[in-house]
């Protein structure tokens, strides 16, 4: 049974919410973490690609990464890769070195939620937030119906955050700003276990990319990241993944004989952050706040950074040390430039990917270290000049 009043209520026990809960509780706040799933991390909604700590720090150099990322438990890691490979529409490939883990998100999300519990956080799983009234929430689920109050509310409940909508902390409407990730976990395949492969081509993933990520042994995660506004001829995200899996001239032979053991899907907010992410009594973090690198759809580490800052700021606010609205400036100082730049690069890539020949030329032209920078949402000056020479229409 929950208390009638908490210092902080956090909605959503993903990486952002659990991290926020742990940091707030460590600072002495009473915290309730509410999760609609009956089993944290299930169903899965993410491929789970997570670069190692040094690469994550390069990605957001001004951020102080949460301690949970310093040493991820071995049981949360499917396998480790050392190469990221781009395959152009014409089949040409180029790769760069990057050490990364394929995370078992089911176990990783539970690890983070358990860490929050160890810090003294109360949890209600299998519980839906039906309504937000000020900083009170009406909930219902496996533990019954309750109205629970708080001094601060944190929304870490995904791209369609009920908390964000209730408080006007939402992004401007942009059909290209939300992607759909549709994935299969498969077994019985023989793929490059050291490489994460990303495939481009408008016949298979218009305005997006497909991927193959080894999960160790003969298992893998394959998927497509695509915007619904670009779907053609009534096709769905599943149709595009099926086309990639069975008809792509390079990928399909690698995936022959695969058995699909799990279907994964979710929304990916690639349009950047809302203009405002904090009010006098409410914060949003993680996907709810657009804490994602738009060029690659990666958001685990940035969500956790946002969650850490949210938890710390809420606790400091309760102690009278800051205004809650300071959160907006704090997280933007640590990773706002990288998130904003990634959106800009993503928009450039959206135009580039409308032409297979242009995309193939760009992959051939760009050096591996520059490709790595683009993947991290950066735009090296040499790449910018090269795009201008291609009459790409940028200044």
Write the layout of secondary structure elements.
Elements: E1 5-11, H1 15-26, E2 31-34, E3 49-51, H2 53-59, E4 77-87, E5 93-103, H3 105-118, E6 122-124, E7 127-133, E8 136-141, E9 146-155, H4 162-167, E10 178-187, E11 195-199, E12 209-214, E13 220-226, H5 237-247, H6 251-255, E14 259-269, E15 282-284, H7 300-318, H8 326-352, H9 356-365, H10 368-375, H11 381-389
Parallel strand pairs: 1-2, 1-9, 2-6, 4-11, 9-15
Antiparallel strand pairs: 3-5, 4-5, 7-8, 8-9, 10-13, 10-14, 11-12, 12-13
Helix pairs in contact: 1-3, 1-7, 7-8
GO molecular function: FAD binding; oxidoreductase activity, acting on the CH-CH group of donors, NAD or NADP as acceptor
Pfam families: FAD_binding_3 (PF01494), GGR_cat (PF22578)
GO biological process, one term: phospholipid biosynthetic process
Compose a concise summary of this entry.
Helix content is 32%, strand content 26%. It is an alpha/beta fold and 395 residues long. It starts with a strand and ends in a 6-residue tail after the last helix.
């Amino acid at each position: 049974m929950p208390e009638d009043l908490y210092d902080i209520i956090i909605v959503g026990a993903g990486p952002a919410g659990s991290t926020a809960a742990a940091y707030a509780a460590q600072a002495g706040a009473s915290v309730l973490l509410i999760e609609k799933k009956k089993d944290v991390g299930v169903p899965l909604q993410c491929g789970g690609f997570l670069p190692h700590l040094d690469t994550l720090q390069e990605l957001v150099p001004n951020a102080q990464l949460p301690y949970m990322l310093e040493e991820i438990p071995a049981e949360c890691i499917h396998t480790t890769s050392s190469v990221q490979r781009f395959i152009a529409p014409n089949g040409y490939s180029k790769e760069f070195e990057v050490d990364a883990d394929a995370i078992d998100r089911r176990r990783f999300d539970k690890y983070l939620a358990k860490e929050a519990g160890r810090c003294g956080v109360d949890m209600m799983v299998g519980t839906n937030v039906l309504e937000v009234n000020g900083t009170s929430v009406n909930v219902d689920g496996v533990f019954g119906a309750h109205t629970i109050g708080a001094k601060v509310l944190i929304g870490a409940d995904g791209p369609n955050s009920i908390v964000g909508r209730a408080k006007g902390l939402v992004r401007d409407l942009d059909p290209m700003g939300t992607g759909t990730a549709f994935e299969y976990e498969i077994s019985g395949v023989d793929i490059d276990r050291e490489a994460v492969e990303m495939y481009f081509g408008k016949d298979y993933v218009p305005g997006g990319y497909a991927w193959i990520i080894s999960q160790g042994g003969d298992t893998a995660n394959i998927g497509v990241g695509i915007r619904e506004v670009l779907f053609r001829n009534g096709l769905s995200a599943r149709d595009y993944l099926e086309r990639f899996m069975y008809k792509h001239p390079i990928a399909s032979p690698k995936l022959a004989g695969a058995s699909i053991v799990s279907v994964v899907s979710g929304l990916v907010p690639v349009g950047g952050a809302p203009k405002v992410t904090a009010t006098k009594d409410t914060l949003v973090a993680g996907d709810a706040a657009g804490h994602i690198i738009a060029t690659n759809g990666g958001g685990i580490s940035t969500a956790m950074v946002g969650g850490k800052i949210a938890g710390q700021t809420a606790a400091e606010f309760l102690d009278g040390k800051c205004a809650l609205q300071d959160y907006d400036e704090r997280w933007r100082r640590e990773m706002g430039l990288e998130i904003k730049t990634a959106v800009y690069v993503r928009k450039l890539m959206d135009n580039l990917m409308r032409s297979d020949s242009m995309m193939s030329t760009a992959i051939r032209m760009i050096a591996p270290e520059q490709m790595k920078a683009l993947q991290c949402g950066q735009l090296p000056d040499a790449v910018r000049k090269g795009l201008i020479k291609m009459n790409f229409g940028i200044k």
